Amino acid sequence: MARNKFEFEEPYLLLESKLEDLKKLSEQLNTDFSEEINHIEKRLDQMMEERYKRLTPWEQVLLARDLDRPMTRDYIRLLCSDFIELHGDRVYGDDLAMVGGIGMMGGRAVTIIGHQKGRNTKENISHNFGMPRPEGYRKAYRLLKQAEKFGRPVLTFINTPGADPGIGAEERGQAWAISEMLCGLSSLRVPIISVVTGEGGSGGALALAVADRIVMLSNTVFSVISPESCASILMRDVKRADEMAGHLKMNAQALYEMRIVDEVIEEPARQYLLDSPDFVEKLKNTINNYLDELGSLEISKLLEQRYSRFRQIGQFLE
Amino acid sequence: MFKKSYIDISGAKKKQAKFENEVTFSCPKCLTRITATEKMQNNDFCPKCSYYYVTSAWDRIHDVCDENSFEEWNAHIKSLNPLNFPNYEKKMIKAREETGLTEAIVTGRGSIGGYDVVLGAMDSRFMMGSMGSAVGEKISRAMEKAIQYSLPCIMFSSSGGARMQEGMLSLMQMAKTSASVGRLREAGLLYISILTHPTTGGVTASFASLADVIIAESGALVGFTGPRVIEQTTGHVLPPGFQRSEYLLKHGMVDLVQPRAEMRSLLIRLLNIHQGENYGEK
Ligand SMILES: [Zn+2]
Predict the structure, then answer these.
(1) CATH number of B55-275
(2) Are residues A118 and A22 located together in one domain of the fold?
(3) Phi, psi angle pair for B181, to nearest 5°
(4) Residues B64-116: pLDDT tens digits?
(5) CATH number for the domain including A247?
(6) Measured between alpha carbons, how far is A298 from A300 in angstroms, rounded to an integer?
């Protein structure tokens, strides 16, 4: 896929384009440089891959927000042989920033809910940039309760800048809708697995993350506040967002080390994730193994473990 | 066992008597002088410029509790700086010096009109009442104690949200405290949340909006996203009274709006109605 989005890729992409020039020149000169060119191309790929292993926290924020990443509907297509999307909160509307429904995954019936961003401006306006309004959370809550009734495990896919910050969202109780999700998930009597697939923006993301297992893809982030807002509040300078991205310890590896998340799935460099057979296999195995493991637990045990998982988070002096 | 069959308003009467001395306050913002009575009548806002005279956690506790009935729990719990976030320790030390508190919430057990309760009061002077690990821990412990003793739980909120200096550890306190409310619900215990000025972000979107009865103090600003951020990100002009208690009541988000001066008497009535269940028997 041709892309030139990330500043850190520029020198490599420049080298890549020079190689293309070299190929053309060698044709014009009727000289065969293909061996040399192949060698440099391989070297370049290696360098790129190595560079991807040394991403700064801020670079990971940019990658996490990339609209070329697979979105919830892409994961649903990947994982489910059959899926029926279900709509509406039965109170106010159907929020397109939140998708949800039921489907078959392997031999298993599951409920899936997740944030949905658009790929371009037009799509993003209808999906509200993946920022759910209260009706989105209430739709999700309804589907959770439905999953509980039928004993279906729940998968959630997280990718949102945050909950919608508009006047209407406030008037319809954004905070109330989110807190009911937090409380509802914490005592839901079926296994819950969350996968952070992009941007985990604050409470609007957490509303889908009170799970038995939380998985993050290696170039995703999860944060209490966006690094931009953090920089403008604390430093009064939004340009210091890159610095804040490091301080906030918001990238997957940092959160794994803090034991906030259970597993990090390595992303292939510079490739549409679902085109990588290794990545797809790892993702499927991770989800299925967790579902097998959690499905074998007594519900009371499952709920006890979920409660203590969140109960023990925090560091303080006593 | 310790229950009284009548409503004790002696605490409230003493508060009334105090106002006859007519202590005056001058607004730090516009210098308008008002008497204590006027201040109370105007719900702690300056009538001229809307400056808010912050009520401390201890003032709230003394406002509603029977005299000398409150026993503090976990006063020793203090925040650390788990992410080594720049300037966080400095800010905490300053907040401790200015407020005399160890953290942004005081929790414990007290009685209100003779009814034993578990009580928590946030203090917005302490780093804007933000919820980090220590605040979340004190709330969850208080709720677990309420379950252990079968007591009603009352929480006064005033907070700017999660404490960003603790990163995801603070965001997760939303999940932790909400899960503890889930346990209160399972135990069938009464939980009353009182939203005071200002309560926004992660506190509104967790334990504070999950109560059986939600009371907003008159004039309080309560919401998820703060008004300035809404204006900046949407470019919309906010409607008059937006996110204020009366507005929330109109939109169906709170059960009642109550002035601070009458909070204690309302709590006593609520506790009285709920006494048919076996609260305080253990
Ligand atoms: Zn004033």
Answers:
(1) 3.90.226.10
(2) no
(3) -60, -40
(4) 999 999 999 999 999 999 999 999 999 999 999 999 999 999 999 999 999 99
(5) 3.90.226.10
(6) 5
Q: How far is A272 from chain B (nearest CA, A)?
A: 28
Is A318 contained in some domain?
no
Q: What is the pLDDT of residue B276?
A: 63
Same-domain status, A38 and A82: no
B107 min Cα distance to partner chain A (Å):
15
Quick check: A316 and B202 CB within 8 A? Answer: no
A133 and A25 fall within a common domain:
no
CB B141 within 8 A of CB B74: yes
Ligand 1 is a single-atom ion; what residues have CB below 5 A from it? B 27, 29-30, 32, 46, 48-49, 51
Residue A209 Cα to ligand 1 midpoint, Å, equals 43
- Smallest CA–CA separation between B54 and chain A, in Å? 22
| ipTM confidence score | 0.94
**What number is the average pLDDT over the span B248-259?**
97
Q: Does B279 have pLDDT greater than 50?
A: no
Burial of B15 per CB tally in 10 Å (0-12, 13-18, 19+): middle
Instruction: Quote the ligand 1 centre to B51 CA distance (angstroms).
Output: 5
Instruction: Flag whether A316 is in a domain.
Output: no
If asked whether residues A89 and A154 sit together in one domain, one would say yes
Number of domains in chain A: 2
- Residues A243 and A231: their CA atoms lie apart, in Å, by 8
Give me the amino acid identity at A151: G
Q: What range does the domain containing A27 cover?
A: 9-54
**Ligand 1 centroid to residue A51 C-alpha, Å:** 57
Q: What is the pTM of this model?
A: 0.93
Residue B99 tokens, joined: 């407020």
